[in-house]
């Protein structure tokens, strides 16, 4: 059994990246990006060619947000409780500085997106939420937080490390951590806004925003949100006056409008990038919303 201490592999300088080969095969590795002194993003890949049986030890003052991307992993906490991370799940883990066993069975493999945050960065009231909802005696908790869609995932892993890109990536990681802490606040009963429909639709809406070009089914949204389609639509109507797919259509239309307004548009490309079947579909949706065609509106914006 190998002892792995991930913090020893993290680059020293913000904006620095490294790829660490794990014990075993060359295609079993972790790509690591240090965003700032207390925030790290990692993309782990475990080969299905061998069985991985390791012990992981992280710093005591570290909070882990892990999203399963493929395969299956078993984590065993210091009390001996086993937690199966699979099926696109999101988990929040408090390290406590104690060893945790990690098992990935042969022929299964696994890939995860991991965000590590130094707990001392959190405001005292958020640290108090962790003490209640994620105590050292129960350091693992599954989240209903939606796993980032393919488009959302590719953005923080795009390899860019220029200052603007790093600022963007910091915001994306902190947003995911913020959503996770909101969920913990709701569980611990400390968040008085937890029952507010506007709060409840934020995470599903963020997921929809990152997947506008994808074909999305209600079953996927139900699974990610952990709520039935009836509850989701009731909640969305209370907060926005629209159903879930009504909100998705509005997001796509607003994004298409921004592209038409601020670029020299190719309507076919815009339609594809914003989830419309073709340029004609985009034009019809545009006419229903604005009472005019995409071409006429574009001409108006260009001369005004």
Structural category is alpha+beta
What is the class of the largest domain in the CATH system? Answer: Mainly Beta
Annotated CATH topology of the largest domain:
Jelly Rolls
H-E string? EEEEEEEEEEHEHHHHHHHHHH
Quantity of strands, as a count:
11
Supply the number of structural domains: 2
- The number of distinct helices, counting runs of at least 4 residues, comes to 11
Largest sheet: 11 strands, mixed
Helix content: 25-40%
User: Could you tell me how far the N terminus lies from the C terminus, measured between alpha carbons in angstroms?
Assistant: 68 Å
Q: Which spans of ≥5 residues are poorly predicted at pLDDT below 50?
A: 190-194, 300-304
Keywords: Transcription, Transcription regulation
Pfam family, one: HTH_18
Protein name: Helix-turn-helix protein
GO molecular function, one term: sequence-specific DNA binding
Explain the layout of strands and helices:
Blueprint: E1 2-4, E2 17-21, E3 29-36, E4 39-46, E5 52-56, E6 62-76, E7 82-86, E8 90-94, E9 100-104, E10 110-118, H1 124-133, E11 140-143, H2 150-154, H3 163-188, H4 197-200, H5 202-209, H6 218-225, H7 229-240, H8 244-262, H9 267-273, H10 279-290, H11 294-303
Parallel strand pairs: 1-5
Antiparallel strand pairs: 2-3, 3-4, 4-10, 5-9, 6-7, 6-8, 6-9, 6-10, 8-11
């Amino acid at each position: 059994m190998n002892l792995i201490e991930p913090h020893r592999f993290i680059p020293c300088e913000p904006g620095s990246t490294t790829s660490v080969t794990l014990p075993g095969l060359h295609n079993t590795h972790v790509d690591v990006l240090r965003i700032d002194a207390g925030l790290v993003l990692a993309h782990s890949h475990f080969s299905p060619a061998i069985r991985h049986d390791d012990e992981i030890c992280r710093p005591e003052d570290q909070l882990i947000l892990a999203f399963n991307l493929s395969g299956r992993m078993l984590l065993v906490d210091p009390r001996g409780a086993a937690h199966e991370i699979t099926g696109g799940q999101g988990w929040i883990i408090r390290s406590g500085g104690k060893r945790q066993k990690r098992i990935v069975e042969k022929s299964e493999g696994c890939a995860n997106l991991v965000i590590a945050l130094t707990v001392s960065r959190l405001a005292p009231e958020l640290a108090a939420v962790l003490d209640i909802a994620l105590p050292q005696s129960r350091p693992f908790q599954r989240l209903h937080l939606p796993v980032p869609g393919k488009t959302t995932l590719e953005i923080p892993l795009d390899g860019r490390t220029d200052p603007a890109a790093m600022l963007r990536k910091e915001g994306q990681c902190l947003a995911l951590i913020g959503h996770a802490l909101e969920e913990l606040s709701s569980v611990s009963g400390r968040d008085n806004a937890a029952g507010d429909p506007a709060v409840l639709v934020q995470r599903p809406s963020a997921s929809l925003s990152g997947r506008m070009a994808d074909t999305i089914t209600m079953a996927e949204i139900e699974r990610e949100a952990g709520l039935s389609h009836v509850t989701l639509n009731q909640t969305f109507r209370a907060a926005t006056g629209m159903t879930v797919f009504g909100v998705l259509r509005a997001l796509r239309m607003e994004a298409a409008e921004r592209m038409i307004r601020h670029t020299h548009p190719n309507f076919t490309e815009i339609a594809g990038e914003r989830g419309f079947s073709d340029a004609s579909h985009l034009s019809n949706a545009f006419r229903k919303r604005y009472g005019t065609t995409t071409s006429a509106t574009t001409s108006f914006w260009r001369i005004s």
